[in-house]
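Kindly draft a polypeptide, keeping tokens residue-aligned:

***
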Amino acid sequence: MKRSDLSRKEATHERIVAAAARAIRRRGYDGAGVAEIMKDAGLTHGGFYAHFESREAMLAEAADRAGAEAVAASERVAAAAPPSKALQCLLQAYLSKAHVGEAERCCPVVALGSELPRQSAEVRRAATRRIKEMIDGVARHSSDWGQPQAHEHALVTVSTMVGALLLARAVDEPGLSNALRKAALGHLKAEK
């Protein structure tokens, strides 16, 4: 195969994975159909198996991509802030009103967490790897980084972030959604 063909195939593969990452956050793993994903990527359903051995393989790559995008977004926010304010800026961005409404770009743990126990080992492994990266990122930006309790604090911080965002997205009352986000931010700020 020529390099230009390989590059075209790689670019097409990336389009499919990006479309799948959006689809799983929008509709969940079970709601992310191959035909819809291929259409969203601008391709026909028939080309799917030229890129993936199975739907599960595609879902694993989509879970990995969605997690990588979330981790990268958090790192960009933290990197743009002064080091002493990196974690607070990350928390504010994560628990922002805008993030609540971004179904296709929101945190995949929030969008898909309750579905993960029913997914294949391959999908769960990809999600677990990215969740661990999220925890490590929070720990690195914490004021107690390097201390024995930093990892445990990061576990609690990530659990609070994810839980608050999940609840803020779940409720149908904007006031309650805002209160959940603000309470979590206030609690996490007081913990630091």
Remarks:
- The two ends are 55 Å apart (CA to CA).
- The chain has one domain: 56-191.
